[in-house]
Write a structure and sequence with these properties.
322 residues; UDP-N-acetylmuramoyl-L-alanine:D-glutamate ligase; 35% helix; alpha/beta
Length: 322
């Protein structure tokens, strides 16, 4: 299929997104003076905006591309949790799998933007693993709704939801149902993603996971090979920023895909755009290479936007036409 044909098939395709849910809060204002109390900017707040973050942004990205998204994760029993639910539903994502954990706050990242530039970020979070009971409820919800979806994606932000047990349970369910599962990884334990269709770390994450440095482009195949040992038969799509992406799949030679971005303003949300586009394309029966090339185009669009963002189907079609 051509890229245009793949994108046209996104409409109505259902993807199940599982992972760490976050509320991304933006505080917008102007900075015209330095505080007399300390050498810091005084930001005069003009407005606040809220968007889904983490796995919620990946799900919102699927909806923006005219797919259907089901979301599984955890929010706190607090005002931020309710606001996050509202932003998720406003993005067109179903929240039936968003369970409440009264023992933790809703993960919230607050970015203060003054004169168009981010000056500080504050985080509210607990990274402890979920209770076994809550983990069981999430796995049960996923199993009961598996027939409704054509692909799955696992968005691990290291906030406690994507434990080794949950990751392997979800991957086994996906493989048993013969449905592609895309992973946006975190941390150094890649064995928990073993068996996924494709895992999408960036170069820094590859270095951390292997404790090896990628000093030159020709180092990447060797380092990626070390990581693939832990992943079994999973493909590896390494995002390389301005250098594009590199796909390692099966015994084939690596495929290098040049970057699509023309102007990079903010990389927030780029990884979410990649996994969402990959999941939708693979659900259409695309090859890994074709899906990766389309995801590369989506990433090139989102990094040209400020803040946590998604890519619309119209924007992706325009990039394909270009």
């Amino acid at each position: 299929m051509t890229p245009a044909e793949l994108a046209s098939g996104f409409r109505g395709t259902t993807v199940l997104a599982i992972g760490d849910l976050m509320l991304d809060e933006y505080v917008w204002g102007a900075a015209r003076r330095i505080s007399p109390e300390a050498p810091v900017l005084v930001v005069e707040i003009e407005r606040r905006t809220y968007v889904p973050g983490g796995a919620a942004n990946a799900a919102a990205g699927v909806a923006a591309l005219t797919g259907k998204a089901l979301l599984v994760g955890v929010v706190g029993d607090d005002e931020r949790g309710e606001r996050l639910r509202q932003t998720i539903e406003a993005a067109g994502v179903r929240t039936g799998g968003c369970l409440v954990d009264a023992e933790r706050p809703t993960t919230t990242k607050t970015r203060v933007v003054a004169n168009g530039q981010q000056v500080v970020r504050t985080d509210v979070e607990i990274r402890e693993p979920l209770t076994t009971k809550l983990e069981d409820e999430l796995i049960d919800w996923i199993e009961r709704h598996l027939d409704e979806v054509q692909a799955l994606m696992l968005s691990d932000y290291g906030k406690g939801v994507v434990s080794p047990r949950l990751a392997q349970s979800v991957i086994e369910l996906a493989r048993g149902a013969q449905k592609p599962i895309v992973v946006d990884p975190k941390g150094t334990d890649y064995a928990k993603y073993r068996g996924a269709t494709v895992v999408t770390p960036n170069v820094l994450e590859v270095e951390r996971a292997t404790n090896l440095e990628v000093e030159r482009p020709e180092d990447l195949p060797r380092v990626a090979g070390r990581l693939r040992t832990a992943l079994g038969d999973s493909a590896l799509l390494v995002t390389r920023g301005p250098e594009g992406m590199s796909l390692f799949a099966g015994t084939d030679a690596p495929v290098d895909i040049p970057a699509e971005a023309q102007n990079v303003f903010d990389v927030t949300g780029a990884g979410d755009a990649v996994v969402g586009t990959l999941a939708l394309a693979l659900a259409q029966g695309a090859t890994l290479e074709d899906a990766a090339r389309l995801a590369n185009r989506a990433a090139g669009i989102v990094v040209g936007k400020i803040g946590t963002a998604t890519v619309t189907l119209e924007e992706l079609r325009a990039r394909i036409a270009d």
